[in-house]
Amino acid sequence: MEKLSYKTLQAMGYDGYLLPDAPEKVLQFGEGNFLRGFVDYFFDLANERCGFNGKVVVVQPIAQGLAPMINAQDGLYTLYLRGSENGEKINRKRIISAISRCLNPYEDYKAVLDCAANPELRYIVSNTTEAGIAYDPACQYDDAPASSFPGKLTQLLHHRFMAFDGDPKKGLVILSCE
Length: 178
Known about the structure:
Blueprint: H1 6-11, E1 24-29, H2 33-50, E2 55-59, H3 67-72, E3 77-85, E4 88-96, E5 99-103, H4 109-116, E6 123-126, H5 129-132, H6 149-163, E7 173-176
Parallel strand pairs: 1-2, 1-6, 2-5, 6-7
Antiparallel strand pairs: 3-4
Helix pairs in contact: 4-6
């Protein structure tokens, strides 16, 4: 079986919606099923139906995360939708193309901070659970990366503030899914 990728889909003549290239407008902390199957699905629909024209950069939350697998598939994955809609039973599948790449902050934290300096970035999405947002007194600003999500977010926001000289028009919308 071929690995899912833009090249594989092109070779098989896939004719569904795909957005191979777009500016990275969303930085997402967490690569789990909830975010990919719910939040990223809606960004994919916003791209297709509303002209959002934006990609999601995913940051894996723990050192042994999914970045290699996600990147090997060009950020693509198949979402199965089963349930009912308007009283009708549905069983659909959709290839989600909203993710541009997945970063491992434990191997390349600079790449995460570089996202903060991206003028196209507009949203931060997170789903780190209660354990991920707990105060950690050992967490320091100079840690690369900080051990806690609040520490990582503080570093990122400060980096963005400095990159844009405090320009209030470069603020970010934070969508917390905890």
